[in-house]
Hints:
By secondary structure, chain A is an all-beta fold. Chain A contains no helices and eleven strands. The radius of gyration of chain A is 14 Å and the shape is globular. The A-B interface holds A 31-32, 34, 36, 41-46, 49, 87, 89, 91, 97-105 and B 4, 42-45, 48, 55-56, 58, 90, 92, 97-107.
Amino acid sequence: EDQVTQSPEALRLQEGESSSLNCSYTVSGLRGLFWYRQDPGKGPEFLFTLYSAGEEKEKERLKATLTKKESFLHITAPKPEDSATYLCAVQSTSGGSYIPTFGRGTSLIVHP
Amino acid sequence: KAGVTQTPRYLIKTRGQQVTLSCSPISGHRSVSWYQQTPGQGLQFLFEYFSETQRNKGNFPGRFSGRQFSNSRSEMNVSTLELGDSALYLCASSLVGMNTEAFFGQGTRLTVV
C-alpha cells in the first residue's frame, strides 16, 4: 500500500526565513510525485510534478526536489502570501491505475 | 480561461437522503476526478472519469457513484447519506488523465445532519 508522510504538520516562519517541507513516500514504483498548495476554503492549486530521483523544479520562491524516498519543497525568503497548506501526493506504477495517495499536508504560516 | 466550476458550493442534507454534486471541467479537459476531503482522513480519491467512462475508482462504498456526460461535465451522487459523509468534495479536471497537471474546483461543502 502506498504511503505518504508529510512533516512537519505545521510550520511558522518569519518573513524572509527560508525553510523546507518534507514529503516521505513508500510506493512499489513511482509514477509521479505532485505538490499542491491549498488556501482555506479553496481547492488545491497545482505546483509541481516530479517523475524521477534527482529532478528539481522551481517556481518563484518555491523549489521542489525528489529522491528515491522523499521530496522536499524549499521555500526561499517566504512572504505572508505563501501562507497555505502544502500537499504532496504520489502515483504508483503498481496495478496500472493512476490513483493518487495524498499526504496530510503541512500548514505553513509566514508572519510579517 | 474559465476554471473548474462546482455547484452547489454549500449543501445541508439530512441523514438517509441522497445528494448530487456537479462539476464542469476546464474546456478541452477530458478527465474529471473526484475527491473527498475531511479533517480526519485528509484528501482521498473517489473516482476518475475519462470520456464518459469510469477509469479509476478509490476505496469508497457503492453509495458513492458518478457519471460523466459527453461534454465532459460530471456529476457525483451519494445515496443514503451518513453523518460521516460530511466533507468537502472536490473535483479536478485534467487534459488527459491524473498523471498530468490537475486543476481543482473550489469544492462543495456537504453537511449531513
